[in-house]
């Protein structure tokens, strides 16, 4: 009985730009017949995701190490780290596809993996690589995916125009996916994840392999979802993506949390000053000359990073070394990662 009630709360509902659209108000029986009911008032949990001391050991290797964090409903939370940091393993555990070795996980108020099937009814997933059916059209991909949620053909077809509009693919509805550009495929994958109008979206490297204009289009679509009250868990190794999109983020290395907080707060608290990047010459030799005038120095490969509020003095000293190239800029999350780990992010 209890499980049936939970199923009704999490059952996918009709997606629309306006949740109180005129069509829904004028014909409430339509939603009941298709089986897509609005959740009960105030039934949505305030925490969309809650991890408590979660550890995952795989083949005697600790992939996730005593990790704890919470994601509030309606925010974009980022998992930031290089390949191998544990991001994909975390998403698999959230979906009930992997069982943690220790700790507790709650998703949309439900324990996972115990009630992962119920939780997944309120989740949309965009995997790192497109898993669209290349021989189907854009419309057919949406139709087939909706059936996984036991939605009727009529209900899915009613949703398709709004999904195509969201993905800016109205003119491509009857085009085979194999003929779409990379950016179009990613937008379709994102729109497909909205078929069940999920409360939570889990996005695993959603802009991998895209050129800058296509990445910006995806970011624009994600912002529109946040405005509509969706919760987003974003895993990425792209620092600019995390800085632009996330309300808060967790920096991971080797399955451990090494920092957590709003991006700008992390930059201010951990770096707190502008950066001069120095290219050319011997970084070790140059660092000896400028060290008295900087707050901190980092060397990565052949690049010298000077963290300083005295940029004029540093530049004057650097003029002693002919042929150097300098780049002065504000601090960013890449600097945070370099400071915390001693190395730049591996793309």
From TrEMBL:
Alphabetical list of SUPFAM superfamilies matching this protein: P-loop containing nucleoside triphosphate hydrolases
SMART domains reported in the protein's UniProt record: AAA
ABC transporter domain location: 49-279
Comp. bias regions, Basic and acidic residues: 1-11, 27-39
Region named Disordered: 1-44
PROSITE patterns associated with the record: ABC_TRANSPORTER_1, ABC_TRANSPORTER_2
Protein name: Nodulation ABC transporter NodI
